[in-house]
Design a protein that fits this description.
Elements lengths: L4 E9 L2 E6 L2 E7 L1 H11 L4 E5 L11 H8 L6 E4 L5 H10 L3 E4 L1 H5 L2 H10 L4 E10 L2 E6 L4 E6 H11 L3 E6 L11 H10 L4 E4 L5 H10 L4 E4 L1 H4 L5 H10 L7
Parallel strand pairs: 1-4, 1-12, 4-5, 5-6, 6-7, 7-10, 10-11, 11-12
Antiparallel strand pairs: 1-2, 2-3, 7-8, 8-9
Length: 251
């Protein structure tokens, strides 16, 4: 397997970085431009920017803020929020994004994945899958966790790969913000059912949680937010820990 990646995530609301628990109770986590600069200097492998209310508010991601962040970093930069056509993708790529991520819009119109992959290449599109355990079954949720669909998570993961997605960003809503660890169960299942990279997201609270998800699932990367934003764990110390644990990461 390729070296595992560590990815901070900026959840953006009203131009500020925020973080909540189970997608609610959001608190301010700082200025996104300053956080992005810090992560670039710390050696983060990539950066994800999610305009978390763009879809709900029926508007586009904040391209001007994307441009300001892109000017400050030199690592791969993925942007999502309010994307529902290829023109939206063009705007974000021109603003400095390297990849885009789609979620609710892809569930509602799956051909969007193929349209983006066809025009910009599969390497440009990351499909975000938010999932929740409902009656002992992992189900896809959309609209920032507000709407539960009838899609089974494994089936949707296979489908997005067929449609041309280059990567999956998988967030367990049950674990998100809890700092109780990644959901090893669904992360492992999705990773073993697709042939594209899977980013594990939701629940990171300690360096051991990163070791667990890398050792017990086939995920290619692990994403976290609050533990990085509030300085509970730094990227350099996490990388040193993982290297000592004999996990192959970029350094």
């Amino acid at each position: 397997m390729l070296k595992r990646r560590l990815i901070p995530c900026l959840d953006i609301k009203d131009g500020r970085t925020v973080k909540g628990v189970n997608f609610i109770n959001l608190i301010d986590a700082g200025d996104p431009v300053e956080l992005a600069k810090s992560y670039g200097k710390q050696g983060a492998d990539e950066l994800v920017f999610l305009d978390i209310t763009a879809t709900i508010e029926n508007r586009k991601a904040l391209a001007d803020l994307v441009e300001r962040i892109a000017a400050e970093i030199n690592i791969p930069f993925t942007v999502g929020g309010g994307i529902d056509n290829v023109n939206d993708v063009s705007i974000l790529l021109n603003a400095g994004a390297d990849k885009v991520t789609v979620n609710s819009s892809a569930v509602r119109r799956p051909e969007l994945i193929s349209e983006i992959a066809g025009q910009f290449g599969s390497q440009c599109i990351v499909v975000a899958i938010d999932t929740k355990l409902v009656n002992d079954e992992w189900i896809v949720v959309v609209d920032g966790g507000r709407t539960t669909t009838e899609l089974k998570t494994i089936n949707w993961a296979r489908r997005v790969e067929e449609l041309g997605a280059g990567e999956i960003m998988l967030t367990s809503m049950n674990n998100d913000g809890t700092k109780s660890g990644f959901s090893l169960e669904i992360t492992g299942e999705v990773s073993s059912n697709v042939n594209i990279p899977v980013i594990a997201s939701g629940g990171a609270g300690s360096m051991e949680h990163f070791r667990e998800v890398f050792c017990n699932t086939g995920c290619s990367a692990a994403l976290a937010a609050s533990i990085f934003h509030f300085g509970e764990i730094t990227i350099p110390e996490l990388k040193r820990y993982l290297i000592n644990e004999k996990i192959s990461i970029r350094y």
